[in-house]
Design a protein that fits this description.
Distance between the termini: 33 Å
Number of strands: 7
Pfam family, one: UDPG_MGDP_dh
Organism: Paraoerskovia sediminicola
Low-confidence stretches: 1-6
Shape: elongated
InterPro entries: 6-PGluconate_DH-like_C_sf, UDP-Glc/GDP-Man, UDP-Glc/GDP-Man_DH_C, UDP-Glc/GDP-Man_DH_C_sf, UDP-Glc/GDP-Man_DH_dimer, UDP_ManNAc/GlcNAc_DH
Order of helices and strands: HEHEHHHHEHEHEHEE
CATH superfamily of one domain: NAD(P)-binding Rossmann-like Domain
Strand content: 5-15%
Family: Belongs to the UDP-glucose/GDP-mannose dehydrogenase family.
Protein name: UDP-glucose/GDP-mannose dehydrogenase C-terminal domain-containing protein
Radius of gyration: 21 Å
Strand order of the largest sheet: 5-4-3-6-7
Mean pLDDT: 93
Structural class: alpha/beta
C-alpha cells in the first residue's frame, strides 16, 4: 500500500513509490489483474491481489496496528510520569527482550492516515473494535496531557513565554495535517492568553491560519525562542532540535520525544 505523501524528503517518497509492496483490490478479478499490470510498469515491489474490500481493510489495519502500538508507548509515558519513572530508560530496558519492541512515545498521533484510518474500522464494527477505539482515545488524549504539563510549569509566572518546538505531525517533514503539536499550540494560546507562545518550525515559513491570527503566537527562530522561554516544550524531534541546547536559567523542559532527556 502507498504511504501518505509527505512534502519534505521527496526522494524517499519516490523510492517507496517504486519499492514498496502493493495490495491491489479489484471489484472483479479482472479489474484487479488490470490494476496489477499498471503497477507493474513502475513498481519493483510484490503486487498482491485481493478483492476491493479486503484491500481497503488491509490499509486500515496497517495504520491501526501502528496506532495501537503508539498508544501503548504514550500510555506508558503518562504512567511513568505519575510513578516517577524515566519512560525512555524503561522502554530501552524492556526492548532488550528479544520479542519486545516498544515504540517511542510522543505528543500524540498526527497525519492523515494513522490518526484517521482506525475510526473507519470502529465505525464499521463498533461492538468488536474496543482495542482500536481505546488506542485512538489514548492517542487523542495525549496532546491535552502535554498542555496540562506546560500549564503547570508556568503557573505563577506573570507573563510566561513558552517555546513550542515543532508543528509538523512527525520529524523532518512540513506536513501539519492532524498534527498534535499544532493542536497543543492552539490550546495553550486559548488557555493562557497572558502567555506568549513562540513557535519554532524549521520546515514552514508561515503559521497555519488558525495560529497566524492569534496575538500571543509567533513563528520565530530556535535561538530567539530558547533565549526567552520560561518553558520549552519539545513537540517534534526534528533534526534541527536534536542537539540539546543550553536552556535559559530556570526554564522548564517538557521533552515529549525524549530527544534531550533520554
Amino acid at each position: 500500500m502507498a504511504h501518505c505523501p509527505e512534502r519534505v524528503l521527496p526522494g524517499r517518497v519516490m523510492t517507496e513509490l517504486v519499492t514498496n509492496d502493493r495490495v491491489v483490490g479489484g471489484i472483479t478479478p479482472e479489474a484487479a489483474r488490470r490494476a496489477k499490470e499498471l503497477y507493474d510498469v513502475f513498481c519493483d515491489g510484490e503486487i498482491l491481489l485481493t478483492d476491493a474490500t479486503t484491500a481497503e481493510m488491509a490499509k486500515l489495519v496497517e495504520n491501526s496496528f501502528r496506532d495501537v502500538n503508539i498508544a501503548f508507548a504514550n500510555e506508558l509515558s503518562m504512567i511513568c510520569a505519575n510513578l516517577g519513572i524515566d519512560v525512555w530508560e524503561l522502554i530501552s530496558l524492556a526492548n532488550h527482550h528479544p520479542r519486545v519492541n516498544i515504540l517511542q512515545p510522543g505528543a500524540g498521533v498526527g497525519g492523515h492516515c494513522i490518526a484517521v484510518d482506525p475510526w473507519f474500522i470502529v465505525a464499521a464494527d463498533p461492538e468488536n473494535s474496543r482495542l482500536i477505539r481505546t488506542a485512538r482515545e489514548v492517542n487523542d488524549a495525549k496532546p491535552e496531557w502535554v498542555v496540562d504539563a506546560v500549564v503547570r510549569s508556568i503557573a505563577g509566572t506573570p507573563a510566561p513565554v513558552v517555546a513550542a518546538l515543532g508543528l509538523a505531525f512527525k520529524a523532518d517533514i512540513d506536513d501539519l495535517r492532524e498534527s498534535p503539536a499544532r493542536a497543543i499550540v492552539a490550546r495553550l494560546a486559548d488557555l493562557q492568553p497572558h502567555a506568549t507562545i513562540l513557535v519554532v518550525e524549521p520546515h514552514v515559513d508561515v503559521l497555519p491560519a488558525e495560529l497566524e491570527g492569534l496575538d500571543n503566537v509567533r513563528l520565530v527562530s530556535l535561538e530567539e525562542a530558547l533565549g526567552a522561554a520560561d518553558c520549552v516544550a519539545l513537540l517534534v524531534d526534528h533534526k534541527a532540535f536534536r542537539n540539546p541546547p543550553a536552556l535559559r536559567s530556570g526554564a522548564e523542559l517538557i521533552d515529549t520525544r525524549g530527544a534531550w532527556t533520554a
